[in-house]
Amino acid sequence: MKRILFIALIASIALNSCNSDNAFKVTTDQVGPLTKNTQVDELKTLFSKDSVVDQNSGLSEELNVNAIEIYEKGGEQLLSLMPIKEGTPKTIKTIQIFDARYTTEEGINLNSTFKDITDAYEVSRVETLISSIVIFVDEINAYFTIDRDELPGELKFNMDAKVSTAEIPSDAKIKYFMIGW
User: Fold this and answer.
1) Edge-to-edge strand ranges of the sheet holding 51-54
2) Tell me, what's the pLDDT at 2?
3) pTM score, two decimals?
4) Looking at residue 90, what DSSP letter applies?
5) Residues in the chain where the model's pLDDT stays below 70
Protein backbone atom coordinates (compact mmCIF):
# COMPACT_ATOMS: atom_id res chain seq x y z
CA MET A 1 0.00 0.00 0.00
CA LYS A 2 2.83 2.38 0.89
CA ARG A 3 4.44 1.61 -2.44
CA ILE A 4 1.26 2.56 -4.37
CA LEU A 5 0.99 5.84 -2.42
CA PHE A 6 4.65 6.58 -3.13
CA ILE A 7 4.19 5.93 -6.87
CA ALA A 8 1.06 8.11 -6.90
CA LEU A 9 2.96 10.90 -5.15
CA ILE A 10 5.83 10.72 -7.67
CA ALA A 11 3.35 10.74 -10.58
CA SER A 12 1.55 13.74 -9.12
CA ILE A 13 4.81 15.67 -8.73
CA ALA A 14 5.84 14.79 -12.28
CA LEU A 15 2.49 15.94 -13.68
CA ASN A 16 2.61 19.21 -11.75
CA SER A 17 6.13 19.97 -12.96
CA CYS A 18 5.05 19.28 -16.55
CA ASN A 19 2.07 21.59 -16.15
CA SER A 20 4.23 24.39 -14.75
CA ASP A 21 6.60 24.00 -17.72
CA ASN A 22 3.63 24.33 -20.07
CA ALA A 23 2.38 27.43 -18.27
CA PHE A 24 4.98 29.54 -20.13
CA LYS A 25 5.63 27.41 -23.22
CA VAL A 26 5.42 29.10 -26.64
CA THR A 27 4.91 26.96 -29.77
CA THR A 28 3.37 27.51 -33.21
CA ASP A 29 -0.12 27.05 -31.79
CA GLN A 30 0.29 27.55 -28.04
CA VAL A 31 1.19 30.35 -25.64
CA GLY A 32 1.03 28.97 -22.11
CA PRO A 33 -2.50 27.60 -21.69
CA LEU A 34 -3.76 29.43 -24.80
CA THR A 35 -4.17 27.72 -28.17
CA LYS A 36 -5.46 28.83 -31.56
CA ASN A 37 -8.87 27.48 -30.57
CA THR A 38 -9.12 29.05 -27.10
CA GLN A 39 -12.35 30.99 -26.80
CA VAL A 40 -12.47 34.38 -25.10
CA ASP A 41 -15.07 33.13 -22.62
CA GLU A 42 -12.58 30.46 -21.41
CA LEU A 43 -9.95 32.99 -20.31
CA LYS A 44 -11.17 33.48 -16.74
CA THR A 45 -11.02 29.71 -16.22
CA LEU A 46 -7.60 29.30 -17.85
CA PHE A 47 -6.15 32.18 -15.83
CA SER A 48 -8.12 31.56 -12.63
CA LYS A 49 -5.07 32.38 -10.46
CA ASP A 50 -4.44 35.62 -12.37
CA SER A 51 -6.44 38.74 -13.19
CA VAL A 52 -8.19 38.98 -16.57
CA VAL A 53 -9.00 42.55 -17.56
CA ASP A 54 -11.43 42.66 -20.46
CA GLN A 55 -11.59 46.12 -21.99
CA ASN A 56 -14.41 45.18 -24.36
CA SER A 57 -17.12 47.39 -22.97
CA GLY A 58 -18.42 50.91 -23.22
CA LEU A 59 -16.20 53.47 -24.92
CA SER A 60 -13.36 51.01 -25.64
CA GLU A 61 -15.75 48.85 -27.65
CA GLU A 62 -16.96 51.87 -29.63
CA LEU A 63 -13.36 52.90 -30.34
CA ASN A 64 -12.60 49.33 -31.41
CA VAL A 65 -10.02 48.90 -28.63
CA ASN A 66 -10.57 45.34 -27.62
CA ALA A 67 -7.49 44.19 -25.74
CA ILE A 68 -7.82 41.66 -22.98
CA GLU A 69 -4.96 41.89 -20.52
CA ILE A 70 -3.73 39.16 -18.22
CA TYR A 71 -1.97 40.14 -14.98
CA GLU A 72 -0.45 38.04 -12.24
CA LYS A 73 -2.08 38.53 -8.86
CA GLY A 74 1.02 40.54 -7.88
CA GLY A 75 0.23 43.08 -10.58
CA GLU A 76 2.80 42.21 -13.27
CA GLN A 77 1.36 42.01 -16.79
CA LEU A 78 1.76 38.63 -18.49
CA LEU A 79 -0.06 39.00 -21.80
CA SER A 80 -2.21 41.28 -23.91
CA LEU A 81 -4.69 39.48 -26.15
CA MET A 82 -6.50 40.77 -29.20
CA PRO A 83 -9.57 38.67 -30.02
CA ILE A 84 -10.91 38.12 -33.51
CA LYS A 85 -13.53 40.82 -34.07
CA GLU A 86 -16.01 38.89 -36.20
CA GLY A 87 -17.55 35.50 -35.80
CA THR A 88 -18.67 33.28 -33.01
CA PRO A 89 -17.16 31.91 -30.90
CA LYS A 90 -14.57 34.63 -30.37
CA THR A 91 -11.00 33.33 -30.31
CA ILE A 92 -7.62 35.00 -29.89
CA LYS A 93 -5.97 36.53 -32.97
CA THR A 94 -2.82 38.14 -31.54
CA ILE A 95 -0.91 37.75 -28.27
CA GLN A 96 1.65 40.23 -27.01
CA ILE A 97 3.97 38.69 -24.45
CA PHE A 98 5.10 40.87 -21.53
CA ASP A 99 6.74 38.24 -19.30
CA ALA A 100 10.17 36.79 -20.11
CA ARG A 101 9.14 33.42 -18.67
CA TYR A 102 7.18 32.77 -21.88
CA THR A 103 9.79 30.95 -23.91
CA THR A 104 9.84 29.07 -27.21
CA GLU A 105 11.12 25.52 -27.44
CA GLU A 106 14.37 27.00 -28.80
CA GLY A 107 14.78 29.26 -25.74
CA ILE A 108 13.66 32.58 -27.27
CA ASN A 109 11.96 35.05 -24.92
CA LEU A 110 11.86 38.79 -24.20
CA ASN A 111 15.45 38.69 -22.94
CA SER A 112 16.76 37.30 -26.23
CA THR A 113 18.75 39.16 -28.88
CA PHE A 114 18.54 39.23 -32.66
CA LYS A 115 21.38 36.69 -32.81
CA ASP A 116 19.41 34.36 -30.54
CA ILE A 117 16.47 34.57 -32.94
CA THR A 118 18.56 33.93 -36.06
CA ASP A 119 20.42 31.06 -34.39
CA ALA A 120 17.13 29.39 -33.49
CA TYR A 121 14.91 30.21 -36.48
CA GLU A 122 14.90 31.39 -40.05
CA VAL A 123 13.77 35.00 -40.39
CA SER A 124 10.90 35.11 -42.91
CA ARG A 125 11.03 38.85 -43.53
CA VAL A 126 11.89 42.21 -42.01
CA GLU A 127 9.50 45.18 -42.06
CA THR A 128 10.87 48.66 -41.47
CA LEU A 129 8.64 51.03 -39.49
CA ILE A 130 9.21 54.62 -38.39
CA SER A 131 10.54 53.88 -34.91
CA SER A 132 11.25 50.16 -35.08
CA ILE A 133 11.78 47.12 -37.24
CA VAL A 134 9.71 43.96 -37.12
CA ILE A 135 11.27 40.55 -37.59
CA PHE A 136 8.82 37.87 -38.73
CA VAL A 137 9.40 34.20 -37.96
CA ASP A 138 6.64 32.31 -39.77
CA GLU A 139 7.92 28.99 -38.41
CA ILE A 140 6.44 29.82 -35.00
CA ASN A 141 3.83 32.43 -36.04
CA ALA A 142 5.85 35.06 -34.19
CA TYR A 143 7.10 38.54 -34.78
CA PHE A 144 9.64 40.46 -32.78
CA THR A 145 10.00 44.22 -32.67
CA ILE A 146 13.40 45.82 -32.27
CA ASP A 147 13.67 49.54 -31.53
CA ARG A 148 15.50 51.66 -34.12
CA ASP A 149 17.81 52.84 -31.35
CA GLU A 150 19.40 49.37 -31.52
CA LEU A 151 20.48 49.96 -35.14
CA PRO A 152 23.85 51.35 -36.19
CA GLY A 153 24.56 54.91 -37.38
CA GLU A 154 22.54 56.07 -40.37
CA LEU A 155 19.91 53.34 -40.05
CA LYS A 156 18.94 54.67 -36.65
CA PHE A 157 17.97 58.05 -38.07
CA ASN A 158 17.02 57.39 -41.71
CA MET A 159 13.32 56.59 -41.50
CA ASP A 160 13.17 55.79 -45.24
CA ALA A 161 15.92 53.16 -45.14
CA LYS A 162 14.86 49.56 -45.57
CA VAL A 163 16.67 47.41 -43.03
CA SER A 164 17.91 43.94 -43.95
CA THR A 165 18.82 41.13 -41.57
CA ALA A 166 22.52 41.70 -42.31
CA GLU A 167 22.26 45.27 -40.98
CA ILE A 168 20.71 44.35 -37.64
CA PRO A 169 23.33 44.05 -34.89
CA SER A 170 23.48 40.59 -33.34
CA ASP A 171 23.15 42.08 -29.85
CA ALA A 172 19.98 44.07 -30.71
CA LYS A 173 17.43 43.48 -27.96
CA ILE A 174 13.82 42.48 -28.44
CA LYS A 175 11.34 45.19 -27.49
CA TYR A 176 8.10 43.29 -28.23
CA PHE A 177 7.38 39.59 -28.72
CA MET A 178 4.07 38.74 -30.36
CA ILE A 179 2.31 35.65 -31.67
CA GLY A 180 -0.28 35.95 -34.42
CA TRP A 181 -2.62 33.15 -35.47
Assistant:
1) 51-54, 68-71, 77-83, 92-97, 176-180, 142-147, 132-137, 125-128
2) 53
3) 0.81
4) -
5) 1-21, 56-65
